[in-house]
Write a structure and sequence with these properties.
- By secondary structure, this protein is an alpha+beta fold.
- It folds into two domains: 103 residues, 4'-phosphopantetheinyl transferase domain (Ribosomal Protein L22, Chain A, Alpha-Beta Complex); 119 residues, 4'-phosphopantetheinyl transferase domain (Ribosomal Protein L22, Chain A, Alpha-Beta Complex).
- Helices cover 35% and strands 26% of the residues.
- The longest helix has 22 residues.
- The model has no long low-confidence stretch (mean pLDDT 94).
């Protein structure tokens, strides 16, 4: 069950976290912060960790230091310690934005900015099946990037739900399709064309109409079913 889902700009959140002091960070988080060479990346990381704690506090109480999050590189965050250690946390960021989800079940989340120019074909060869690559090739160039990120975000969210980092061989073997009316849903997608943002959630027994705090943006929700096939 999704308890909270929030989208926010990282800069204002970073300012609040910095003003509060950084004593809330756990040992793994402090070690991870020390590996960032870029100031912006460091601030994004800390802002996302602060947002996660604010959502956890809203749901289960405590203070920021009560909630300890793991921070192993290339893997999703895990809840190490807290008033309700059974909860699950998902984090993602892209550009100026970051997203956080709190759930009672394992959950994955991915946020991507879809307006930055990228060459779709090489990305698709890494992460999409032959069928998906063929579908992308039939689209006009101006539509290919948005269609690619529709697949990518759901696949990455699926990996994060399972505590995995990027695995291209697994991604190529995942099939994403729209869920028909009345079908089970294990993926939810959100797209705001004006903001150029796409968000995906992956969890078991998701329900359409999920409430999300969007910081004023207007997202269209999509329901997906994702299944694992041969790579």
């Amino acid at each position: 069950m999704i308890l909270a889902l929030r989208l926010a700009r990282y800069a204002p959140t970073w300012a609040v976290a910095e003003a509060a002091g950084l004593d809330f960070l756990g040992a793994e988080e402090r070690e991870r912060v020390g590996t960032f060479k870029a100031t912006a990346r460091r601030e994004q990381f800390i802002a996302a960790r602060w947002m996660a704690r604010r959502l956890l506090i809203e749901q289960r109480g405590g203070i920021p230091a009560d909630w300890e999050l793991g921070a192993i590189a290339h893997t999703p965050p895990r809840l190490v310690r807290g008033p309700d250690p059974a909860l699950h946390v998902g984090l993602s960021h892209s550009g100026d934005w970051m997203a956080c989800v709190i759930s009672t079940l394992p959950v994955g989340i991915d946020l991507e900015t879809v307006t930055r120019p990228r060459r779709v074909a090489p990305l698709a060869r890494q992460s999409c099946s032959a069928e998906e690559q063929a579908l992308l090739a039939t689209l006009p160039p101006e539509q290919q990037l948005a269609a690619f990120y529709r697949m990518w975000t759901q696949k990455e969210a699926w990996l994060k739900q399972r505590g995995l980092g990027i695995d291209f061989s697994l991604m190529r073997g995942l099939r994403v399709r729209d869920a028909a009316a009345g079908e089970p849903v294990n993926g939810l997608g959100y797209f705001d064309a004006a903001a150029g943002l796409r968000l995906a959630l992956s969890a078991e027994s998701l329900q359409p109409g999920q409430r999300m705090e969007t910081n004023g943006l207007s997202f269209v929700e999509e329901t997906w079913w994702l299944e694992q096939t041969a790579s």
